[in-house]
């Protein structure tokens, strides 16, 4: 029987950390071979494990990863970072590595290594540390004083250097000097800890033991892609969106009035059902041949069908109520009474979501084309889907409210308690219609002219607005006459603003000149005459 060759992994880490981590990783997996020196590499490593003690300057890390990629272009790179970082998750995802994992256990790191070697990607980042570890108070006496005072001074100097290095105006030569000084301070810090610090500080590692009760159990950014198949990519996106929709969401947009007219249970069911129906469409399209050619034709009829299925499935399909003395299926009534073809002009084409997933197309983000398995692409698609779900839910909710106005018995079944009253319901409908008209007539033309698009997303169990910039000139040309006048007024204001500002400034300067040179001098002369007259009277007296 031929023995399987060990997976050769190049680990780039400080010596103490590298030796300790290599021992822990290989103790339970004989198939791993950890190499700590680049000179000992035999052939192409299966993985490059890059362990960072501190995440300081993103540019220097990107440069190091770029050099590694140039030398071993076929080897994936996995970055391990400590719990305390100074960079956001967005910055960490731009490093160009196949994975970033923060403060993992040995088991989690071992599983992550296998996923990345198998062609997957893993990003587990938590900017806000979840550790509640108490400060270490095991050192006393002279050693304790030397430790705390020395570390305090070094940390103060490091902070000053970080502030200086962060300035973009600094020249390259001076930057190298500062980075060298910073490296010296870090070495001195490790030496002080080694001499006077307790053992727990000496072997501080970004890898936590399994017995640690304060391990991060949930990451703010948690993306694991085992392979690049359509099914795997969609499962990752689906789980992330589903997790966002689990709880009752707080509406912080001051919009979506129709959606939040539904009672809590119906509102939650509607959002989850829309996600399920969207997933069904993805699965159906994925199973078809020549998907790219047929996609445009299918998407034209996809919206009415999806909305109809949502109205049938987000409630019990067998639920019935009396209408004019006859039992009527609620779902059938909603479908037949609703206008399923209503369009939301602010909703981007559904093809922006479906096409990249099905056809493995890159996504344009901040001027760069990103592969579909890039974590930033996953997050962008997640935003698109959440926006689509919330906007579609608002349209469906408006149709439900319209049906409740026609069939009063539905109000207790679908709506909040205060909307059971006919007066309150009609007031709510008028409010929704007025808001839609204002959006269509005033706000939308302004957004089009400013090349802005409004997205709804979910963050921290809240529905929030996100404004993005994108060219919308084609939509601007399709506006009707009244809407174009709004855009024209904005353009006219922008054109006249510099002239008006110049005129006002000129008038202001003129008034200042009159007050100081004319009025002020006249008042001075009058005052001088009065003073001289009073002086003469006093001399005569």
From TrEMBL:
Domain of life: Bacteria
InterPro entries on file: Uncharacterised_Ycf55_cyanobac, UPF_Ycf55
Pfam families: DUF3685
Protein name (record): CheY-like domain containing protein
């Amino acid at each position: 029987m031929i023995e399987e060759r060990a997976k050769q992994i190049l680990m780039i880490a400080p010596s103490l950390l590298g030796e300790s981590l290599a021992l822990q990783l290989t103790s339970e997996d004989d198939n791993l071979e950890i190499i700590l020196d680049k000179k000992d590499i035999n052939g192409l490593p299966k993985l490059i494990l890059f362990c960072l003690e501190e995440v300081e300057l993103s540019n220097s890390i990107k440069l190091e990863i770029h050099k590694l990629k140039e030398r071993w272009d076929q080897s994936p790179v996995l970055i391990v970072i400590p719990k305390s970082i100074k960079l956001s998750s967005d910055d960490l995802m731009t490093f160009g590595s196949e994975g970033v994992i923060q403060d993992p256990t040995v088991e989690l790191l071992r599983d992550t290594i296998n996923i990345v070697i198998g062609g997957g990607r893993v990003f587990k980042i938590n900017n806000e540390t979840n550790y509640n570890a108490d400060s270490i108070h095991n050192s006393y006496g002279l050693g304790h004083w030397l430790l705390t005072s020395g570390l305090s001074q070094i940390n103060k100097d490091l902070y000053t250097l970080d502030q200086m290095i962060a300035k973009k105006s600094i020249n390259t030569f001076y930057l190298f000097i500062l980075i060298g000084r910073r490296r010296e301070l870090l070495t001195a810090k490790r030496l002080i800890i080694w001499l006077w610090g307790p053992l727990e500080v000496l072997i501080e590692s970004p890898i936590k033991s399994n017995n640690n009760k304060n391990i991060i159990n949930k990451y703010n950014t948690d993306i694991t892609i085992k392979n690049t198949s359509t099914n795997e990519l969609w499962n990752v996106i689906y789980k992330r969106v589903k997790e966002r929709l689990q709880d009752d969401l707080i509406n912080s947009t001051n919009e979506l009035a129709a959606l939040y007219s539904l009672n809590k249970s119906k509102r939650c069911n509607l959002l989850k059902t829309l996600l399920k129906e969207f997933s069904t469409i993805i699965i159906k399209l994925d199973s078809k041949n020549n998907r790219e050619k047929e996609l445009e034709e299918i998407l034209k009829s996809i919206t009415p069908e999806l909305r109809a299925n949502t109205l049938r499935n987000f409630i019990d399909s067998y639920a019935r109520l009396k209408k004019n003395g006859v039992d009527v299926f609620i779902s059938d009534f909603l479908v037949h009474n609703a206008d399923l073809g209503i369009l939301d002009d602010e909703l981007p084409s559904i093809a922006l979501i479906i096409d990249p997933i099905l056809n493995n197309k890159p996504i344009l983000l901040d001027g760069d084309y990103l592969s579909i398995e890039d974590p930033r692409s996953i997050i962008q698609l997640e935003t698109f889907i959440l926006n689509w779900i919330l906007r579609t839910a608002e349209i469906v909710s408006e149709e439900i409210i319209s049906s409740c106005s026609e069939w009063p018995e539905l109000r207790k079944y679908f709506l909040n308690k205060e909307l059971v009253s006919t007066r309150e319901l009609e007031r709510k409908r008028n409010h929704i219609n007025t808001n839609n008209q204002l959006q269509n007539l005033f706000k939308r033309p302004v957004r089009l002219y400013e090349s802005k698009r409004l997205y709804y997303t979910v963050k921290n169990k809240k529905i929030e607005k996100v404004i993005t910039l994108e060219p919308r000139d084609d939509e601007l040309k399709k506006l009707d006459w009244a809407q174009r006048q709004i855009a024209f007024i904005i353009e006219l204001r922008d054109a006249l603003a510099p002239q008006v500002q110049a005129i006002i400034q000129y008038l202001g300067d003129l008034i200042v000149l009159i007050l100081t040179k004319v009025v002020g001098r006249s008042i001075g002369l009058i005052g001088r005459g009065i003073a001289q007259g009073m002086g003469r009277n006093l001399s005569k007296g």
